[in-house]
Amino acid sequence: MNIHRCIKKYLVLIGCLGGCLGMSLPGLSQNNSLDYYLSQALRRSPLLNDYRNQLQSARVDSEIIRAGYGPQVTGTSINTYAPIINGYGYDQAISNGGNFSTLVGVNKALISKRRLDTQYDSLRLQSLGIANTSKISEQDLKKSVTAQYISTYGDMQQMNFHRETYALLQKEERLLKELTEKNVYRQTDYLAFLVTLQQEGLQEKEFEIQFQNDFGTLNYLCGIVDMDTVALAEPSVQLQVLPEIDNSAFFQQYQIDSLKLRNSRTLIDYTYKPKASIYADGGYTSSLAYQAYKNFGTSFGFMVTVPIYDGHQRKMQYRKLDIAERTRQGYKDFFTSQYRQQIAQLSRQLKATEDLIGQIESQIKYSETLITVNGRLLQTGDAKIPDYILALNTYLNAKNLLTQNNITRFQIINQINYWNR
């Protein structure tokens, strides 16, 4: 009698659990793909927009340099009056009683085309560095979004699998209940089946919650403000061929840094070359002391600046550049070694995971056959419920392991593809 009461309590509990699971997450009809989330993330990223704006700003800097070496026109007006009151005041021999000046000046630096090209190269290398950093940041964003998408897709797969299994077990439960009431099976075995049924329902609920949490994180990474969950398509993640090391964006940064150091050395050399400029002005300047109306005039000239001695600062700056070059080379060598080691390790992990997936799929086929046979024998009372539960748990564990390794395979491919830019 107590066993019957326990069975009734479990039936009520499972019925309530089934109702909660059926109501908590409706069928996911809409189907979003990985490309959708990647496009949203790339479009909304403030960091990538910042890099695009920096490139536009660099083009403006180039225009500023070009304008700076053109003729510079300035207007100045200086007007002073130095009165003498009761014999007190500035010496008129110095102040002339006042000075009134309004001039327009033109100044033009004389610079060689090679020097101007060197400054343009400096901006060009700066733009190349920004563009390359933008590529790497884009890869970082794609990798993060793809990894989160794969995890969320795995949650959905697990949730759907446990949901289907739970529905299947509910059908089996009704049959076993009838057979138990006819004393074909023991009530304790039937109660053990109900426990398995309840555990499967809880598993579905657990993965549903995990799916909702990871889906929210996916939207957060992409800058999407939407709380509704939708179905996800299988990740379109295919192993891509990696470029040659020298053509990779991750190594181009070291090449750009090397060119920057060379450019800096050239700019240092130009700072120690003579500088020349021409100037001219015209306007009115007068002390108003004599024939002020005739004090309109002009002047022009030529100026040369030659550096002579500055305490050997040129050699000191060269030494700093040599230190920077050694640092750059050290980073490049270390990164090259790490890159090759990581690619080799990921490739081994991918092969081992794919081999394991093949073994798991083979085990699942046997488990499915065993469950099918036991299911048919249960209907006639020729199988033991514990044997059916054991076969079912083996199948569930294998399916879970298959899903986990498929997700792991996608994640490994995502990590390898990260280096394909």
Features:
421 residues; alpha+beta; Outer membrane efflux proteins (OEP); four-stranded antiparallel beta sheet; two-stranded parallel ribbon
Corresponding CATH architecture: Up-down Bundle
Compute the number of helices: 9
Provide the structure class.
Answer: alpha+beta
Profile the largest sheet: 4 strands, antiparallel
Cα-atom Rg, whole angstroms? Answer: 40 Å
Please describe what this structure looks like.
The chain is α+β, with helices and mostly antiparallel strands and 421 residues long. The protein has 9 helices and 6 strands, in the order αβααβαβααβαββαα. α5 (113-181) packs antiparallel against α7. The longest helix is centred in the middle third of the chain and has 69 residues, at 113-181. Mean pLDDT is 84; it is low at 1-26.
